[in-house]
């Protein structure tokens, strides 16, 4: 079916669909068979505010047999868009306002998460379902997985193999532990779509379709 004009995800469909799009709070770029996540800094003057894109984290699979394939928009709502990377067995639920990037992985693929920065430290919890990623640009990211995974890394790439399930990635603002507690609490429930609905005059309600367990952040 035709896609809407002037949508919040139009950069995913214009021309090659490989320009960054702002899905608050991240800039997200889908190019070929990978998706790149950026927590943007800003440049501003009296005329405009510009968000600066840097490839903080790029998610792809290893040994992709069709690396030049592009994404497909499989669904969209008022507040969300779902991007599929068929050659990678990856589906991304991009939801406006969510601090998490959520990815559904199928097929037991080998995942790669690369960065233009140096990986300063990678640490996990005892159950191997949560990893803290410290980069040398002072960013801290947290990765949650729906089942235990063994992550390995070199200076700029994290890899893990044979995974199927859900991964969620979020920036830890200012590396502040109080925010980490909040992210931990809401890491198990994720939205897959959202609508803005006028249920009665002068009243706007957000309706979410969610999966997992617990409450949404």
From TrEMBL:
InterPro entries: Endo-beta-glucanase, GH81_N. Pfam families: Glyco_hydro_81. Residues 1-217 form the Glycosyl hydrolase family 81 N-terminal domain. One of its GO terms (molecular function) is endo-1,3(4)-beta-glucanase activity. This is Glycosyl hydrolase family 81 N-terminal domain-containing protein. It comes from Davidia involucrata (Dove tree).
């Amino acid at each position: 079916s035709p896609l809407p004009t002037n949508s919040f995800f139009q950069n995913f469909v214009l021309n090659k669909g490989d320009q960054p799009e702002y899905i608050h709070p991240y800039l997200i770029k889908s190019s070929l068979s990978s998706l790149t996540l950026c927590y943007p800094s800003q440049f501003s003057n009296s005329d405009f505010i510009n968000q600066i894109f840097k490839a903080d984290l790029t998610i792809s699979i290893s040994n992709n047999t069709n690396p030049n394939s592009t994404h497909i928009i499989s669904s969209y709502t008022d507040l969300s868009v779902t991007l599929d990377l068929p050659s990678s067995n990856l589906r991304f639920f991009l939801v406006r306002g969510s601090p998490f990037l959520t990815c559904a992985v199928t097929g037991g693929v080998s995942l790669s998460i690369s960065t233009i920065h140096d990986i300063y430290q990678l640490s996990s919890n005892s159950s191997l379902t949560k990893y803290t990623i410290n980069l040398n640009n002072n960013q801290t990211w947290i990765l949650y997985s729906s089942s235990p995974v063994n992550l390995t890394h070199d200076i700029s790439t994290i890899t893990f193999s044979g995974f199927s399930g859900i991964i969620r990635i979020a920036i830890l603002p200012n590396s502040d532990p109080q925010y980490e507690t909040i992210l931990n609490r809401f890491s198990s429930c994720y939205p897959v779509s959202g609508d803005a609905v006028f249920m009665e005059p002068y009243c706007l309600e957000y309706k979410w379709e969610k999966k997992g367990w617990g409450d949404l952040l």
